[in-house]
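Good morning C.,

I know you're traveling, so I'll keep this short. The sequence:
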Amino acid sequence: MSSLDDLLADLTSGVDDRAEAAASALARLGESAVPALEGLLESPDVDHRWWAVRTLAQMQHPHVEWLIRALNDESAEVREGAALALAAHPVEEAAPALVKALNDEDGMVASLAVNALTAIGKSAVPVLLEAYPNASPRARIQMMRVLAEIGDHRAIPVMLKATEEDSALLNYWAKEALERLGLNMVYIKPE
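The tokens, ready to paste straight into the viewer:
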């Protein structure tokens, strides 16, 4: 097995094959690799931060708080990696940061945040419902996608209200959510 210093050199080498192999090896080292990864997460080099997040994502028990913090990185690629990692390691404490990420200017970050919130499941619903009234139109659509996937009855009032809004996408996801909950509605126009 390579030494920790060798693995870190490979991880930050700029050569993807070497970095990927090093990320896997470092992830297997677990806690002994954590101090070095913490330093990389603070690096001014975007590539170093991305590979640190990539390594954390492969760990069996990553420091989730670092992944949550990485959702605020200036680099969209790092934020994407963090959201993807949180989908693989879903924890309730990540829900507020992931809800905020639904409004990320990078569409991939928002889409990956949907996946992570869906993986968190029902414990993310209260955070979604609390944030929904003040969310941007784009974030509301993403929230409704998550609520449709999770299928929690606590969201029914929000879903029903969303079917009355002007957004075609929001309407679609709200109706999809209600249908998945078995609340198919037939609208009959009286004559």
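Safe travels,
E.
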